[in-house]
UniProtKB/TrEMBL annotation:
Gene3D superfamilies: Farnesyl Diphosphate Synthase. The keyword Ribonucleoprotein does not apply. Transmembrane segments: none annotated. This is Terpene synthase. GO terms for biological process: isoprenoid biosynthetic process. Keywords: Lyase, Magnesium, Metal-binding. It is an enzyme of class 4 (lyase).
Amino acid sequence: MRVTVADTTEIKLPHLEDLWKWPRLVNAHLPEIERECLEWSASFGAFDAETQRLVHEKGKLSKSSTVIYTVLEAHEEGILTGKRSILDLLAAMCYARMPRGTYKVSPEFVRTGCDLMHLFFMFDEHSDRASPEEVWEQAAIQVDAIYSPSKPRPRGEWVGGEFTRQFFLRIPQSATETFKQRFRDTWVDYVKSVAQQAEHRSHSRILDLESYFPLRRNTSGAPSTIALYEMYMDIPGEIRRHPLILELEELAVDLIVIANDILSYYKEQAVGDDEHNIITVIMNQFGLGRQQAIDKAGELSAAKMDRFEHLYCRVPRWVGPVDLDVQTLVDGMAQCVSGVLHWSYESQRYFGTRGLDVKQTRRLRLLPRRKIDGSHGGQQHGQLVPKPGPVPVDEDSMVLVANIVE
């Protein structure tokens, strides 16, 4: 049940990315693999023509930013020219680098990351339009596909089964069995949580913070996103389950969740798509106004950032290659947070073509709340990859929802 509070239509965003010490990076291999990923995703016919167009939509920066900096293996700063698919750009920003040494950033690494973002998007698009019973069936199909990738999918089955099966088969042969099992575990948690959220959505149920975080950590898809950093690793269980490493991972996931919820909120609330969002949760639980809830979420994020940085400097050291594995994994957690923070302004998904202006001014003017037609309850489960569709526009003035407050 939603608690209604009289509120302003103007908000100010917290400086999340300014508090995060990890830089904005883009994987330099993206131009090599992007076309293949897009063609692979399109081959399933999983989307209607309009949605497929949005999958291929390019992220466009405002005129004030004409270059996108990348990190090259030679530690040189280069320029990634052209415009990138928003899904592939997200992967390239989350999987921008690995420490020099045993592992280097390779095309197959970022290609798998791009495939993953397309898989997220596919399930998000289909589950958002399905009943809870249908989403549970979709989840079961994906679990079967990821555990039996060599088994052909039944004729006439939901397209997500073959999409998931091929994703797993496209994982590089050099990936370790340890990684594959860990990824399966995170994916099972993810698809089940999406089905659980579909049930909440059908009843317009808003959770409290204590119930929200355990579910949202999985619906975000962040654990699976982070798991890709272990693709070539074989970290022993007793090390992977070290309390400090587990806490760092949970902090990184929470930071991704909070950032995504804050930065997507203006769009979600405009179309009645905000029940699975920390801003609505805080407003509802504490009876706060919109700006107060945003400020509270920002403060929570800042505290978690401080804790992450504190623990990052205290990661234990081990003898042998596993030490580099652990350092790579923990740095990857941080890079995923950075990728989500900066991508949110550059992808056009949340702020249209004025993302970098929003990033500078922090101020937004929101449109009145609207409803989505043709979906089960109008709420998506809020994973990392956003729901397709243009940024809402004021029909009278044709001003973006993200119109900057003068």
